[in-house]
């Protein structure tokens, strides 16, 4: 059997939403893999002055779901806690460059 199932799991997970004039949708299916390796994150309304911002991410798991699930559960909070990002989140005039720096760091 190896890293593949005898037959694919074709059940689909679907999610959609409408927020602040933005519509989004996603769908995932495990397929032939032993476990679902991919994960996603969809968060509307970030803290502070970024309440009108949203965060969307898709994490492509390879050889397992641990890293992709960990990223989906923790990456946004890690970004928000960086000095550059948190400083931008409390300022009225949000600096896109500071937010980008917070994401990179």
From TrEMBL:
Residues 23-105 form the PPM-type phosphatase domain. It holds the Pfam family PP2C. PROSITE patterns: PPM_1, PPM_2. GO terms for molecular function: cation binding; protein serine/threonine phosphatase activity. This is PPM-type phosphatase domain-containing protein. It comes from Allacma fusca. The lineage of its organism: Eukaryota, Metazoa, Ecdysozoa, Arthropoda, Hexapoda.
């Amino acid at each position: 059997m190896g890293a593949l199932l005898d037959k694919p799991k074709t059940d689909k997970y679907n999610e959609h939403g409408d927020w602040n004039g933005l519509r989004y949708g996603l769908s995932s299916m495990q397929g032939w893999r032993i476990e679902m390796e991919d994960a996603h994150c969809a968060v509307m309304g970030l803290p502070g002055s970024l309440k009108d911002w949203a965060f969307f991410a898709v994490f492509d798991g390879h050889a397992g779901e641990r890293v992709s699930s960990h990223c989906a559960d923790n990456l946004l909070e890690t970004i928000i806690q960086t000095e550059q990002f948190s400083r931008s989140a409390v300022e009225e005039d949000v600096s896109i460059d500071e937010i980008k720096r917070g994401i990179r760091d």
